[in-house]
Amino acid sequence: MLLGVHVSIAGGFDKAVERGTALGCSAIQIFTKNASQWRSKAITEAEAEAFKTVLAHSPIETVIAHDSYLINLAAPPGENRDKSITAFVDEMERCATLGVPYLVMHPGAHLGAGVEVGLERISAAFTEIFQTAPPGVTVLLENTAGQGTYLGSRFEELAEIIARTPSGRFGICFDTCHAFAAGYDIAEASGYAAVMSDFERILGLDKLQLFHLNDSRKGLASHVDRHEGIGSGALGLEAFRAVMTDPRFAMVPKILETPKGVDEISGDVANLAILRRLAGKV
């Protein structure tokens, strides 16, 4: 079972591995830079080697990176689009330097131009990106809550991005909070089964390569992206029981992005314990 949390890289990338190990994780997610800044300091060879060495001697089997929140590949032609493409290539190169095989990203916001224009802009951006991006890094498109003009809240939109970018290397990150907020009713076992059937038909289960396990502070089809602790939100426990016991996804990494608590650790400890119990591992 590949289960873990998003951990901080404060103090060095190797410290992120140590934090995940202390929580009993077998998978972790990190930012490779400050997620709220465009510019980033280059990763040194010493930093990369320290990370790889600590990782090799840890129980962490999978590391996933998440890109900067500033990047918007659906932006119109101009400075923001250019900066987004450059920054995303840099994110992929940072993953390659660290040996991290997966980079999660939110597809972007069309900013009023409409879904069709937005999808075409994203595809064009990815076509450009994959001309120079390093091999060995797979982009995981994350489903969104559909807040504002954000694209990717529907499986069909994610499928369109992949279909329009034949040169790309893509998988899907399925976020439970985002799916519920977007209108996919996975709160009960029957609804979860129906949604996964739709996912299989539209995208294919082989594309589902990561779960973000988050409860939702807001209700079904709210289109509001607000994460909550497992079982403490509008989604409830049954959706997570369904994911944790679904044999099709037994070896798909599952990452928490839930509130961490005032001490930055108690929330993760509690939520990991709930998920292990739901999986029957306690």
Question: How are the SSEs placed, and which strands pair?
Answer:
Elements: E1 3-6, H1 13-22, E2 27-30, H2 45-56, E3 62-66, H3 79-98, E4 102-105, H4 115-132, E5 138-142, H5 155-163, E6 170-175, H6 176-182, H7 189-202, E7 208-213, E8 215-216, E9 227-228, H8 238-244, E10 254-256, H9 266-278
Helix content: 25-40%
By CATH, the superfamily comes out as Divalent-metal-dependent TIM barrel enzymes
Largest sheet: 8 strands, parallel, barrel
Structural class category? alpha/beta
Strand content: 5-15%
Protein architecture, described:
The protein is of the alpha/beta class and 282 residues long. It has one domain: TIM Barrel. 39% of the residues lie in helices and 15% in strands. It has nine helices and ten strands. The strands form two sheets. The chain has an eight-stranded parallel beta barrel, surrounded by four helices. It has a two-stranded antiparallel ribbon with strand order 8-9. Strand 4 (102-105), helix 4 and strand 5 (138-142) form a beta-alpha-beta unit. Helix 4 (115-132) packs across helix 5 (155-163). The mean pLDDT is 97.
